[in-house]
Amino acid sequence: MSDRQREVKVMASEIKRETVVSIKDAYLRYASEKGSVTALENVNLEIEKGEFICVLGPSGCGKSTLLKIIAGFEFADDGKVLFQGKDINDIPPYERPVNTVFQKYALFPHMNIYENIAFGLRIKKLPKEEIDRKVKEMLKLVALEGYENRKVDSLSGGQQQRIAIARALVNEPKVLLLDEPLGALDLKLRQEMQIELKRMQQKLGITFIFVTHDQEEALTMSDTIVVMNKGLIQQKGTPEDIYNEPANAFVADFIGESNILDGVMVEDFKVIFADREFECVDKGFEPNEEIDVVIRPEDFKIVKAEEGMLKGTVKSVIFKGVHYEMVVEENNRTWILHNIKFAEVDSEIGLDIYPEDIHIMKKVR
Ligand code: ADP
Questions:
Q1: C-alpha of residue 231 to centroid of ligand 1, in Å
Q2: Which atom of ligand 1 is nearest to the CA of 31?
Q3: What pLDDT is stored for residue 365 in this prediction?
Q4: Closest residue by CA, ligand 1 atom 13
Q5: 210-264 pLDDT, tens per residue?
Q6: For ligand 1, is residue 32 a contact (CB within 6 Å)?
Q7: Interior CA angle at 261 toward 260 and 266, to 5°?
C-alpha cells in the first residue's frame, strides 16, 4: 500500500468515526409507589454517524428510557447527552435534530397520507413545490407511490408504519429513533420491513437508533448492538461479536439459546463443570475462580454413549427444519442440543465438547 493509499484509508476511517450522539455517565431513577426504579445506571455510549444501532434487552431494562433522554422526553438525573459534541440538555425535543417513530403509528386520522407526511414541512413553512417534491420522494422511498389521497384507516398496519417512517424521515433528522416500530406487525411483514428499513437507512446514511427486545431483529439489521439489562449496558459490539463472544452469561442467554452452568477455572486452559475437567482456550482467571460456562446448543458433538466426555439420555426430539432440537438429561442436568444427527428418544448418547466451544465468562452480579 502506498503512503497516499494509507492516508486515504485513515481519512475514510476517520470520516466513518464521526460521533453524533454521546451519552456520558447517565443515571436515571423513576420514583414509583414501591420505591424508586433505576432505569439507567452509568450508561456510556457513543453512536457514530450513519450507524444502524440496536438497543436490545428484555422488557423493563431501560431501552425506551435511553431513547427518551436522546429525544428530550426524559432527563438524566446525572450525566450528559451530547449531540456532535454539544450538550443538548437545554434544547427542547422539537428543536433536537432527531425524530422518533413509535410502535403505535400515531398518524393523524383526519388527514390523508399526503398531509400526514407534509405535516412537519408545513410547520417549517417550506414552499409548496418543495413540500410536494419531498413528500413524493418519501412515498417512493417507502414504496407507497400513488397513496397520496388515501385515508389512514384504509391502509394496513405495515403500510401505516411505513407512512409513520416517511413522516419522520421527511424532516431529514440527523438521527432517527425507533422504539419497537415493528412490534405490532406479524412475523412475515416484520421480516420484510426489517430489510426495507435497512435499505432506507443505507440509502439515506442517517443514523438509526432502534430499540427492540427481539434478538433476531437486532442481529438482522444492526451494524452495532447494545445489550442492556437492568439499566446497565452489558455489551456493545457487532452482531458477530455479540453472538460469538458474549461478554457474560446474560448476553449469551439473551442472544441465543444456551446451556449455562456454574464452573470453576482451575488454572489457565483448565475448567471444571458437569463434575469433570475439560480443556478450554481461556486464561487469565484467578486460580479456582468461580465462573459461568456457556455452551451453545449447536456446539455438541454426538458420539457413542461410552465414548463421550458426557453421557446422557435423550428426553425429547423436535424437528426444527434445519436441525433437531434435543433435550438430553445427564446426571440430573438438562442440556439443549441442536444437531443434524437424529437420536431416538430414551436412547443413550455421548457428548463431546471441543475446547474452543467452551465459553468461560466472569460471574456478574
Ligand atoms: P424498556 O423500554 O426496556 O421496556 P423502560 O425504559 O420503559 O424499559 O423502563 C425501565 C424501567 O423503568 C422499568 O422498570 C419501568 O417499569 C420503569 N419506568 C419506565 N417509565 C417509568 C415512569 N414514567 N415512572 C416510573 N417507572 C417507570
A1: 9
A2: 25
A3: 55
A4: 60
A5: 999 999 999 999 999 999 999 999 999 999 999 888 899 899 989 888 899 999 9
A6: yes
A7: 125
Q: Is 36 in the pocket of ligand 1 (CB under 6 A)?
A: no
Parallel, antiparallel or unpaired: strands 289-295 and 300-303 = unpaired
Amino acid (1-letter code) at residue 100: T
pLDDT of the residue at 68: 96
Q: Is 62 in the pocket of ligand 1 (CB under 6 A)?
A: yes
DSSP 3-state percent helix, strand, coil across the chain (nearest 5): 30, 35, 35
Residues whose CB falls within 8 Å of the CB of residue 75, separated by 6 or more in sequence, listed in order? 28, 69, 89
Polymer length in residues for the chain: 365
Instruction: Kindly compute the dihedral angle of the four CA atoms of residues 263, 264, 267, 269, in this order, to the nearest 10 degrees.
Output: 0
* Gap from CA of 56 to ligand 1 centroid (Å): 15
pLDDT tens figures, 19-76: 999 999 999 999 988 889 999 999 999 999 999 999 999 999 999 999 999 999 999 9
Q: What is the DSSP letter of 152?
A: G
- List, in sequence order, the alpha helices (H) in the chain: 3-16, 63-71, 113-123, 128-141, 157-169, 187-204, 215-221, 239-244, 249-255
The pTM score is: 0.84
Mean pLDDT of the chain: 92
User: Does 39 contact ligand 1 (Cβ within 6 A)?
Assistant: yes
* Alpha carbon distance 259, 330 (integer Å): 13
pLDDT of residue 2: 54
* Residues 275, 311 contacting (CB under 8 angstroms): no
The closest residue, in CA terms, to atom 1 on ligand 1 is 60
Biggest CA-to-CA distance, the chain: 80
State what percent of residues in the chain have pLDDT above 70.
95
Angle at which helices 128-141 and 157-169 pack, to 10 degrees?
A: 130
Q: Is 183 in the pocket of ligand 1 (CB under 6 A)?
A: no
Q: How far apart are CA 163 and CA 221, in angstroms?
A: 20
